[in-house]
Amino acid sequence: MIAQEALGERILLLGNEAIARGAIEAGVQVATSYPGTPSSEILEAIASVSRKLGIYAEWSTNEKVAFEVAIGAAISGVRAFSSMKHVGVNWAADPLFSINQTGVIGGLVLVTADDPGAYASQNEQDNRYYALASELPMFEPADVQEAKEMTVTAFDISEELELPVMLRPTARICHSRADVALGPIRKERRQAKFNKDPKRWVMMAGRSRPRHKWLHDKLPQVQNVVEKLAFNRLEIGGDELGIIASGVSYVYVKEAVRNLKLENRVSVLKIGTYPLPLTSVKKLLGSVSSVLIVEEVEPINELYVKTVAFDEKKRVDIRGRLTGDLPRQWDLNVDIVTDSLSQVLNIRDERVPGERELLVKKAVEMAPPRPLALCAGCPHAATYYALKRAVYKLAKGPAIYSGDIGCYTLGANPPVDMQDTNYCMGASIGVGCGFSQAGVKEPIIATIGDSTFLHAGIPALINAVYNRARLTVVVFDNRATAMTGFQPHPGTGITALGEKSREVLIEDVARSCGAEFVEVIDPHQLNNAIAAMHKALGYDGVSVIVSRAQCVRDVLREARRKGVATELYDIDPERCNGCGVCITMFGCPAITWREDGKLAEVDHVLCAGCGVCAQVCPLNAIHPARAK
Amino acid sequence: MESGPSELNILIVGVGGQGNLLASEIISWASVKQVLKVRVADIFGAAQRGGAVTSHIRIGKDVYNPVMPRDSAHILLGFEPVECLRAANLLRPDCTAIINTRTIVPSSVSLGQATYPTLVEITSLIQKLVRKMITLDAVSLALRAGDALMLNIVMVGALAGTGVTPIRKETFIEAIKDLAPRGTEHKNLTAFTLGFEAVQEKLAVEHPLKRGIPSL
Description:
Structural class of chain B: alpha/beta
Number of domains of chain B: 1
CATH topology of chain B: Pyruvate-ferredoxin Oxidoreductase, domain 3
Strand order of the largest sheet of chain A: 3-2-4-5-7-6-12
Distance between the termini of chain B: 20 Å
CATH architecture of chain B: 3-Layer(aba) Sandwich
Largest interface: A-B, 60 and 67 residues
Helix content of chain A: 25-40%
Number of helices of chain A: 22
Order of helices and strands of chain B: EHEEEHEHHEHHHH
Shape of chain A: globular
Largest sheet of chain B: 6 strands, mixed
Number of helices of chain B: 8
Radius of gyration of chain A: 27 Å
Strand content of chain A: 15-25%
CATH superfamily of the largest domain in chain A: Thiamin diphosphate (ThDP)-binding fold, Pyr/PP domains
Structural class of chain A: alpha/beta
Oligomer: heterodimer
């Protein structure tokens, strides 16, 4: 559907699909990404039609590589595109701070899918700072349609300015659906041609100096371009208050203004570009005595508008996240903006707190918390359980678990409780080295997934082995980038285009990094897994365990496709004594307490038939029941 | 804050893995097929793994923001009972709530850190917050259609069965055919029909719902 011609037709698109469609309409030829919420569906959408449209798409090993691949294409004159989650740009930042000085020939667009509120991330960093720091233009869409339009325009502007352009959709845009009007698809496919020009493309000491000036000489042109773009818009209503709202905040402001009936009392400046449209900012500052800045997440526009007011010698009261008129952190919504506007404009809240409010409060309090958990049948749960038992058998006290990014991070939640740190991709091994070299006495265990290992674990493992750290690395290899939606990676032997490629075996990589203790286990064979882990924990040096079993979601999908029945398990009430090991130690979500609260039972709707619980049960009370 | 008159807000709540996102896509795609303006927010964070998942579907010509404010859901499609409680602040007093009674017990309850209220406690509280509540065991119906996973389609059928949306039954069916995985269309249509009929039967014995939604 995403590749259809149908000019002007409205189809339902996810924000991320709209961005993909924008890139397709713009005639992108090379698209790269590393999966990460909320960005993953962008490349998925492009890859799904890449063959048909003659676009090269790849899941790269990490975001730095992804962006570099796009750079190679763009400086060869073709349109290129790289999408990633906000923290992925931390990896791509290295090339970003050089490509801004060489510029590009073919349009280059870098999408940073930000996560205000950190709903699916380790932080809520505001990547508008990257646009400011690299002095590159950035667009920030307010809705799904605009996300598509901005992507198309970003390519054109990128070529006009010879600079990469960043696009910053936030999670609320990425994961929204809307009816979107389609535009024409550019059919042109350029022949890539790299023209040697060492003064431009070779950023080394001496040669990069003039290029920084080149970038600065561009900035007035950048400012001129954004002044003319319709992504910025001043909507004059009244002069009681000016509101400057960027990105998705704009639609929250629109709804709050409508609900509070402020259309004739306030003026709204919609911001869609960085740098901001200076003319409109000045115009607004000249017509109101106070301004509320609404933005996610950091007070970037708030500080900018203050400097403009200072330069313009305007005495305007500028409010926002720094003045306490909006929360200092996190994402916004209509309710927050409504409350803020009511406070700033002294509008009394006419809602009378009554019985309903108490009932709502009671309802919310009655709902038990629902922490994320590993799926029923997840091989990671078996790996964690084996590890728990091996550490106990080692009898050197509790281990320290240096964690990483992926499904297995959910091992931080009870009853697993086996993630003591979590920072960023690959940090499990690096931080584990630090524990070891600092002299931490406990057994040190770095837990890392297959895709994460290939993304960021390899340099850290080399470091661990070469500098003689003492730690056990457990690779949770479920042969999938599961958390983000099953994108292929080099360990799976499949490319983004669905082609077969040579599978990279993690045990081979680990050995070539210098690790001498490397064992591959199947976590479903619990006793063997415990024995191997026990041996690894006793090893003096760096030991690597690759715990390999296909993700249960893939296994179930495959079984359903083939029409194969899954063998489910049952707990024999005659044998079960309610010890609870299957619930409080192993923690399978399909096993719950019976209504009497004394014995355990299996929910057959959730059971995936992995059979690990039968090995966990000390009373041999769990057995295959029937096929479903 | 009461929502404006020319919009219809449908809230879907459930647990990751229940197929809520596909249900959301089917309802929104059906809306687009009828040339309705639609804005949808699928709110799941990393919660594809057993966490709470919410979809906001907003239909109407004046709708531009996908996330509904407090007190604005005209329809609640509850895939899991306690998730309905968690969303109580989003419901309008004239809300129609359709609730699947099959529970998914969170780990906080299994581990004894929290209690799961009884179904009676949940429904009697929801009943006080909405105008009309319909309960059904969507998992049993899905199993009758051939697969417990199709409870999402049963719930879409239940929504269609209320007749409170401007989306026609045939449009829902077309949308399911468009979006259901190939080869499962027949089973999915059975699931849709079971949900549709379950609700129609319930409404026939009680009082039928008025099509209370103004033109969109």
